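Input chain follows. Return structure tokens only.
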Amino acid sequence: MALNDDIIDKLIEGYQKPEDLIGENGLLKQLTKRLIERAMKAELTHQLGYEKHDPQGRGSGNSRNGKSRKNLKGDFGEIEIEVPRDREGQFEPKIVPKHQRRFDGFDDKILSMYARGMTTREIQGHLQEIYGVEVSPSLISEVTDGVWEEVQTWQSRPLERVYAIVYLDALFVKMRHEGRVENRAVYVAIGIALDGRKEVLGLWTGDTEGSKFWLVVITELKNRGVEDILIACVDGLKGFPEAIEAVYPQAQVQLCIVHLVRNSLKFVGFRERKAVAKDLKAIYSAPTAEAAEQELRLFSEKWGKTHGAIEGLWRRHWGRVVPFFAFPLEIRKIIYTTNAVESLNMSLRKITKMRASFPSEQAALKLLYLALKNVSAKWESTQHWGAALNQFTLLWEDRIRAARS
């Protein structure tokens, strides 16, 4: 609907300062109230089939029956509106449905702030300061609790039949569990499908990492439709190979190079970090396993006296590093250039650090789910995926063809 200048000029007649338009009792708030009330009157007229005081309504079987009041929260602040009623109680307003106390989009603002790690008190203060709306802690809890059903649906949704690579990573979050606050691991699985699309497959929490825990995770992926995983890239190995081989015996378990390098640099001071990282790159970028072994020996000769723990770390995990060198360059880049994984984990850790602890496991998972939705919405298809897929097809053509049939 078009608004001509005459209407605008009439509305702002007497305007002197911004508060006249957007203040507590400004024009925009008054206009919102009047428009909503007029729209509901029009809806009731349409439902009854006659205008107010129209003789046509006599004996129609239903008629107007006064008004009721309720407060409505929204971007405009908080306003009291009058809702028309009919005698038979059949009138259901569309613009502001029965029992609705918040205007469309208001809950989304609460969830957006919650997803960015803001506490209930911070959300209260923000809404009061920006919109002039007083919101109770119970209302915020009601809105965020509504996400849990969405989380459960997402966690049980069907998945692709085959994933070229599945990354499994973990972050530790303080949450209340069985009556006490403790550090619990939250495991995140990210899959790259055969079309190069990345998606978060699920979230799981556990207090210990072992074969039984990993078997539960892998079995759940199987039950949700994942028939095959070509490469499983993990940040730790405790219990994982046994679990994945029990469910996906053909999958190649590969230690994540990014995590191995990151764990190595924990032993290094700031001044030497750049030089050590450069020499570690010479290891994982070597053309063959033999060449990588030679680079590891050179690394030991140079840094062994001061950073022997790094060589020990690589030696202990060498059996799960070596398969990496059998892959063509295109696949190697996909494995160790895990920008999506790193970006997601960085965002999740940033948000969880804003909370001292979570009152429950459910509260932690709600926040992490909303946060990863924000991050993954910006993901694009994996770079150079065409070349990588050609190599995957050469290596595992039968398995890929079986999954697509």
